[in-house]
Design brief:
The protein has 285 residues and is of the alpha/beta class. 28% of the residues lie in helices and 22% in strands. The strands form three sheets. The chain has a seven-stranded mixed β-sheet, covered by helices on one side.
Length: 285
């Protein structure tokens, strides 16, 4: 398969252009995708990592047009760090997801996050940012992160789905900031919509989003069933569960798989179906 082109502005539809950042990895697939919305004035969605080549590519794609907003779906280091420099270059405000805060004293997840992310305006569910010929409406979709937002382009029924829904892989849900209960509710929220296409932060456009979301819900429920069966068989630790559930997994992704299992266990614990006993777990009522 040919490598996807980085640093090249590719028109996806009249109002949407994509620029791929040069940061491929097991977690980012071919890299983080920045989407530019508009023709005369613009919104830049998830400007990506603080990479000089990607920043230059974005400025070339913007081509001197006014930027009304730098829009952030969430605060991971492959999505938001470039916002600071782009704001300095364009004068556009940073809007969207709330700044990252962990309120508990449990294991920290800060390493994956952008510590310098500071929005000028936080968008709540249903709030909008607009320019000439385009309107973006925020859709609160917590789960992958506590502050995750998707953005609906009302004029064309496209949804910028960030890391909530991706065509190449399911999202990592990593506690304490990631929350499986919230993630499942956010997927259910999308079922009630009529979006035409999803443009994710990683991977190809999703042309049949309702079918994919239903499949993702089914996949997560299948994982939940696997965990309950393993608990019933006396498999008590997360590494042991990962070994049985993710046969053939790339070893580089074992930590992420363990975090997703933990997220399911926390959700099951809330429902009384699993009980934590130190580092081990057992089945609840």
């Amino acid at each position: 398969m040919d490598e996807p082109p980085t640093g090249i502005a590719i028109a996806l539809e009249p109002l949407v252009t994509r620029v791929l950042a040069p940061n491929p990895s097991p977690y980012t697939f071919t890299g983080t995708q920045t989407h530019i919305v508009g023709t005369r004035d613009l919104a830049v969605i998830d400007p990506g990592p603080a990479d000089a080549a990607h920043h230059a590519a974005l400025l070339a794609a913007i081509a001197g047009r006014p930027v009304r907003a730098i829009v952030i779906t969430h605060h991971h280091r492959d999505h938001s760090p470039a916002a600071i420099r782009l704001k300095a270059e364009t004068g556009a405000p940073i809007v969207g997801a709330a700044a990252f805060r962990l309120s508990d004293d449990g294991p920290r997840a800060d390493a994956a996050f952008d510590p310098d992310y500071a929005p000028d305006r936080v968008l709540a569910d249903g709030e909008r940012v607009a320019g000439e010929g385009w309107t973006l409406e925020a859709l609160a979709t917590p789960g992958h992160t506590s502050n995750h937002l998707c953005f609906a382009l009302l004029e064309s029924k496209a949804l910028f789905s960030g890391d909530h829904v991706m065509g190449w892989s399911t999202s990592v849900v990593s506690p304490p900031d990631g929350d499986m209960t919230a993630y499942m509710a956010s997927l259910e929220k999308l079922i009630g919509r009529d979006d035409r296409v999803y443009y994710p932060g990683h991977g190809d456009a999703v042309e049949n989003p309702q079918r994919l979301v239903r499949g993702m819900l089914g996949h997560r429920k299948q994982r939940e069933g696997q965990i309950l069966r393993l608990l019933g068989e006396g498999v008590a630790t997360i590494p042991a569960m990962v070994g049985k559930m993710y046969v053939g997994l790339d070893p580089r992704l074992a930590g992420a798989a363990g975090q997703s299992v933990l997220a399911h266990l926390v959700d099951l614990e809330r429902r009384g179906l699993a009980i934590a006993e130190g580092a081990a777990w057992r089945r609840g009522a």
